[in-house]
Write a structure and sequence with these properties.
This protein is an all-alpha fold and 248 residues long. The chain folds into two domains: 88 residues; 115 residues. It is built from nine helices and no strands. InterPro entries: DUF6261 (IPR046228).
């Protein structure tokens, strides 16, 4: 038997808006043909609808969309600031000035565990940046190295941007707590329901195949490929040192 398997998609890594859209599109494909698959897949679809609707309701609260956009902008700003710091370090590593090369190498060694922190979930990224900046601020030699290659102000700017993100993130969570569960807290159930539905369809198309299931499987797999591409992120300069351990 030619076993069908869905394309790889790290669903939990999707941004909440992308997850909501993926689930919605999946439901739109599946609901009209629900009579064509068994009770297990039908029950999994019902759970997916329920959990995605609950998450969507919280996402659409008055004011939350604006705060989420502000958070996205602040996150993009700190990512850009860190990318600029990394570019300057790499540039001086390739330069002729030996003092700057030495300083840049010291900084590269320090930042290596944090190099790809921008690929972490936003609040995890906040915690990792805080840890990184605390260690940097406690090390006079590193601060001198940063001054040598002219990135001390950039690092200060990154710290300010990270604090601004953290303040707004906590403000949003505080508001959400007063008005039911946050959309973020409802993401995990929505992820689980989506994965359970995919498992049910995958099993059904392999063990009780039909034209309806084969078509639905193909539609869902194309969606997975699309969102997998959206989720792919690379570092700015191609370097991929080891990532730091997540703090959440």
């Amino acid at each position: 038997m030619d076993e069908k398997q869905f394309s790889t998609l790290y669903v939990a890594r999707l941004k909440i808006n992308d997850l909501y859209s993926l689930n919605n599109s999946t439901i739109e494909y599946a609901k009209p043909v629900v009579a064509g698959f068994g009770v297990v897949a039908a029950a999994a679809l019902t759970n997916l609808e329920t959990d995605n609707a609950a998450m969507g309701t919280q996402m659409n609260k008055s004011g939350q969309g604006t705060i989420n956009k502000q958070l996205a902008n602040l996150d993009a700003d700190r990512d850009d600031r860190f990318a600029e710091i990394k570019r300057n370090i790499n540039t001086d590593l390739k330069g002729r000035d030996e003092a700057k090369k030495t300083a840049a190498q010291n900084l590269k060694n320090f930042f290596k565990p944090y190099w790809n922190v921008d690929t972490k979930p936003m609040n995890t990224e906040t915690g990792v940046f805080k840890e990184m900046l605390q260690k940097y601020n406690a090390n006079e030699a590193l601060k001198a190295d940063a001054a040598t290659i002219g990135i001390a102000d950039m690092i200060t700017g990154l710290e300010t941007a990270n604090d601004e993100f953290d303040t707004l993130y906590k403000e949003r969570d505080s508001e959400d707590a007063q008005d039911g569960p946050s959309a973020t807290s409802l993401k995990a159930p929505a992820v689980k329901s989506y994965e359970q539905f995919c498992t049910a369809i995958e099993q059904a198309v392999n063990f009780a195949p039909s034209d309806v299931l084969t078509t639905l499987f193909g539609q869902m797999d194309e969606l997975r490929k699309t969102y997998a591409a959206l989720n792919g992120r690379k570092s700015d300069d191609g370097d991929t040192p080891d990532e730091t351990t997540e703090t959440e």
